[in-house]
Amino acid sequence: YGLDAFLASTSNAASASAIAAFCSFFEYNTGKEGNEGRCKNIVRSCESMTRIMQPGESLDFNKQVGPYKKANGYFPAPVLIDGGSQLGYGGGTCQSSSTLYNTVRQLSGITIVRRRPHGPGCAKYLPMHQDAAVGNKELNFIFRNDCEYPIRIVAESTGEGTLCIQVFKGE
Q: Which ranges of 21-162 would DSSP assign to H, the alpha helix?
């Protein structure tokens, strides 16, 4: 699922146009330890992010997408901790939360309640400090829909290098 396929799928949407969209990119099929798990975790997190939010409703990423455990369909993959990397369940979900952050921050009716970028060693998939780290009580991404209308979040990835998130005006 590359950028061309994403753009083609959105251009065929006769009933709605995205009011915000953002794509990020990642390596796949590298053979590196944890890379396959990271790709699967991005796909899994997209399944949990896709939803409708009513006006005034908040999305707490850790509650919506986590907990990041094997029992919830997550795999071991590299996670950033204190500037270093180690294997942990749910590695890759920070790229999902960060892509969502960069999508919703385009909308004037969205209030960012909580967000913190990665610290030293920052996320390599976005410009420095444009990310939203998640994974525990201190690291979470929370935002509120203060638009006068519902929004529909559509998060998509096949795990083959592209993660795209669109927001549509709801009915």
A: 35-49, 61-65, 93-104
Helix (H, G, I), strand (E, B) or coil at 70: helix
76 - beta bridge partners?
89
Give tens-digit pLDDT for 107-146: 999 999 999 988 766 778 888 889 999 998 889 999 999 9
What is the DSSP pairing of strand 142-145 with strand 110-114? antiparallel
Coil, strand or helix at 112 = strand
3: enclosing H helix or E strand = helix 3-11
Q: Which residue matches tokens 């030293």?
A: 120
Q: Give, for 87, the enclosing helix (H) or strand (E).
A: strand 84-89
Please answer whether residues 157 and 38 qualify as being in contact, where contact means their C-beta atoms are separated by less than 8 angstroms.
Answer: no
